[in-house]
Amino acid sequence: MDDDELNSRLKPLRERIDALDAQLIALLNQRAAVALEVGEVKKHFNAPVFRPEREQQVIARLQQMSGGPLADAHISAIWREIMAASRALEQNIRVGFLGPAGTYSEQAMHEYFGQSIEGLACASIDEVFRSVEAGAAEFGVVPIENSTEGAVSRTLDLLLETQLLIGGELALPIHHNLLTASGDLTGITRVCAHPQALAQCQRWLATHAPHLERQAVSSNAEGARLAAQDPSIAAIAGDRAATQYGLQIAYALIQDDPHNRTRFVMIGKEPSGPSGYDKTSLIVSVANEPGAMFKLLEPLARHGVSMTRFESRPARVGTWEYYFYIDLEGHRDDPAVSAALVELDQKAALLKILGSYPRAR
């Protein structure tokens, strides 16, 4: 097929696409105008701009309506950005994340909230919580557990202490690369990364780079920043950090588990309403007596509430006492979950509800 024939076949198709694009931009602007009206109503009633349960419902409805060829993931990505742009017309939303730029936390923030937000890079998970508590950011994004290394202990500890609520979650595939300035290991003596990333790649490092000293730093992006400054340092980080700091991928996908994922939660001051596909997270403690845990969990089974996560953390007071972090299916306003929580509150030494929020799909 020569170029003339190719162009003759493509021309009418491109004209159809151009016509459809003209319709789409007109409709998107109409949608944005309605979103501005929604914003005015919210201002009048002092209602929050971002409602994660509403956005989840919109995306789920569109996915059900779609007959293809767009996949559910494509629809989710497209409408996340459309809704983010509409939110930005109503209010500039600032979100705290574990920085510097180029971290998986930053990637999770944009995948959840879209690109039309202002990110606030924080030096630590503690600082993410403080930024939201102090009002420097409306929301924060923090890692809570990894499929390989388990819970992020500092996040669990801070959730116990804070008055902030979990408002949403996102499970992010983690693809670790070994990054260097040169693109190989010549002259490299040290690898810098977050402790969890070092642990998630320990078998690969032991096999392919046993001579490298391993140094834990505050984030993978911080390791990438150091590698960009010092040619003797390698970093473990994702594609975003490689681009951000001008590094080359010496080895790609070095995580020990090819299905490695990290779950992030979104924290804020406002509770999320029911979306129809929710999760409730809570912390409980029980008296140190025989059968105490059975008595605590029995109401869940009796009311038909499924428990999807059970994590224990030592209490910092007393001897051999623990807090239990539990995830339940359903929203705290659902009748079965509500009834079970009432009984839990009566039987537990402590019950703290961390939030009910849309589950990651």
From TrEMBL:
Molecular-function GO terms, alphabetical: chorismate mutase activity; prephenate dehydratase activity
SUPFAM superfamilies referenced in this protein's UniProt entry, alphabetically: ACT-like, Chorismate mutase II, Periplasmic binding protein-like II
Q: Which reaction does it catalyse?
A: chorismate = prephenate; prephenate + H(+) = 3-phenylpyruvate + CO2 + H2O
Pfam families xref list: ACT, CM_2, PDT
Which pathway does this chain act in? Metabolic intermediate biosynthesis; prephenate biosynthesis; prephenate from chorismate: step 1/1; Amino-acid biosynthesis; L-phenylalanine biosynthesis; phenylpyruvate from prephenate: step 1/1
Q: Does the keyword Transmembrane apply?
A: no
Q: Which residues cross the membrane?
A: none
**Swiss-Prot/TrEMBL GO biological process terms:** chorismate metabolic process; L-phenylalanine biosynthetic process
UniProt keyword Cell membrane present: no
Which residue numbers delimit the Chorismate mutase domain? 4-94
Main location per the UniProt record: cytoplasm
The residue range of the signal peptide is none
User: Where does the ACT domain start and stop, copy by copy?
Assistant: 281-358
User: Where does the UniProt annotation locate this protein?
Assistant: Cytoplasm
- Keywords, alphabetical: Amino-acid biosynthesis, Aromatic amino acid biosynthesis, Cytoplasm, Isomerase, Lyase, Multifunctional enzyme, Phenylalanine biosynthesis
* Marked site (Essential for prephenate dehydratase activity) residue numbers: 262
Q: What is its EC number?
A: 4.2.1.51, 5.4.99.5
* PANTHER family named in the record: PREPHENATE DEHYDRATASE P PROTEIN, PREPHENATE DEHYDRATASE-RELATED
NCBIfam families linked to this entry: CM_P2, PRK11898.1
> What is the name of this protein?
Bifunctional chorismate mutase/prephenate dehydratase
The scientific name of the source species is Paraburkholderia solisilvae
GN (gene name): pheA
